[in-house]
Amino acid sequence: MLSDMSYLSIFFRIFNFVIIIGVFWYLFKKYIKTGIIKQINDRIQYLRNLNNERAAFIENAKQIDIEITQQNKLTQNLLYKLDKWKSVIQTEQENKLRKFESIKIDIENKQAIKNNILSQKIVYSQVIPQIIEDNKIEILREFANNEQAIKYQKEIIEFIKKSL
Amino acid sequence: MNIKDSVVAKRYAIAYLNLSLENLNDQDLLKIRVAYDFLVDNREAFFLLTLPNISLSDKTYLIDIFLKKFNLSFDLKNLFLLLVEHNRIYLLKDILKAIIDDYQARRNIMIFDISSSNYLDKNDIDVISKFLYKNTKNEILPIYKIDKTLIAGIKLQSGSFLWEYSIKKQLAGTKKLLYKL
């Protein structure tokens, strides 16, 4: 059986233990708990931030995907327009080339006609009159002798006589 | 000349021929023709007759000189004076032309200008006249002249008939042909 001393001693022991526990609790509450809670809150905040960043990244990635899709569409559209434009340009160039060739042929034809007219003019204004003049001189020389002219005239009279 | 003048000239010519045809012969016609040719070459020959300040006696004197110069019948004097009186002396050339044409039609004759490069004797002209008669069925009154521009050949011409066989014509034909090529 325990003596009174022993009860007292147990009591004090318990009492001391309670005081020590109280001091530890007090010290824990005053110096450690605040820091731990702060660290936990910081950690939670950090995790929240990470989560938010992740969500933002995901959203951003989605946005980028959409933009990529849109860019792809725009690119396709642009490529289609580019092809069309190239085709139009090519057609236009071919038309221009054809027109140029046509104009070139026209110019060549006109030049040929001009050359022809010019040579005709030269023939008309120089060659033919010269031929006629030469011919006339030759004939006049031929008939300078009156006998030739008289002979020719007599032949005409004979021809008239025969027709009577 | 306008149409009205032409009609008036013809009327004067017809009136003259109606009065004087019986007195006219072919030789007179040839003389008229010579006078006509002169007026063609000298358009202002009767300019003085158009001036009002020239007296009638002076005008008559001029007309007499003209008639003598071309040995024309004095029947024409009355026509000339009538034209002076009517202020239509400017029609004289056309009236003479109309007289020549109308005379030829009434007498069934044709005046032909016969040109040759060299002299043609009377026999040749007779041959040509027969040839023309055969082709026109009209009596021929030849007016002969030498035309050296023919070079060699003969040309027969009246108002509506042309027959030419000459070097000049052949040259012209060659020229035309060359220009056609």
Describe this structure in words.
The complex is a heterodimer of chains A (164) and B (181). With 164 residues, chain A is mainly α. Chain A has one domain (4-163). Chain A is built from two helices and no strands. Chain A is rod-shaped, with a radius of gyration of 64 Å. The N and C termini of chain A lie far apart (203 Å). In chain B, helix 7 links the parallel strand 1 and strand 2. Chain B has a four-stranded mixed beta sheet with strand order 2-1-3-4. Chain B has two domains: 3-106, Peroxidase, domain 1 (Orthogonal Bundle), CATH 1.10.520; 108-180, no CATH class. Chain B has helices at 3-20, 26-41, 47-50, 56-69, 75-85, 92-107, 122-136, 167-180, and strands at residues 109-116, 139-146, 153-157, 162-166. Chain B is an alpha+beta fold. Chain B is built from eight helices and four strands. Chain A binds chain B through residues 124, 128, 131-132, 135-136, 139-140, 143, 146, 148-150, 152-153, 156-157, 159-161, 163-164, and chain B through 116-118, 120, 124, 127-128, 130-131, 134, 151-154, 165, 167, 171, 174-175, 178-179.
